[in-house]
Amino acid sequence: MSALPSRLRVILIVALILLGLLLSMYWAGRFAEQRAWAERSQEARGQLELYAQAIHTQVERFRSVPALLALDSDIQALLASPADQRLRKQLNRRLEQQNQAAGSSVLYLLDRSGETIAASNWRDWSSFVGNNYAFRPYFRDALERDSGRYFAVGVTTGIPGYFLSSSVKNATGEVLGVLVVKLELEDMQRDWVSQPGILLIADSLDIVILTNRPAWRFRHLRPLSDEVRSRLVDARRYAEQTLQPLYSEQLQRIDEHSERRQVEGPDGRHDYLWQRLELPAEDWTLHLLLEPQSVIASVRSYRLAAAGVWMTLAFLLLYLAQRRKTRRVEQRSRSELEHLVAERTRELHTAQDELVHAARMAALGQMSAALAHEINQPLTALRMQLASLRLLLDNGREDEVRKGLGHVEGLLERMAALTGHLKTFARKSPAGLRQRLRLTDVLEQALQLLAPRIRSEQVEVFRQVPNEAEVSGDAIRLEQVLINLLHNALDAMTERPQRRLRIVCQRNGNSWQLSVADNGGGIAAEHLDRVFEPFFTTKAVGQGLGLGLAVSYGIVRDFGGSLEAHNDGQGAVFTLTLPAAEADAAE
Ligand code: ADP
Question: Do domains 40-61+187-291 and 65-184 have the same CATH topology?
Answer without folding.
Answer: yes
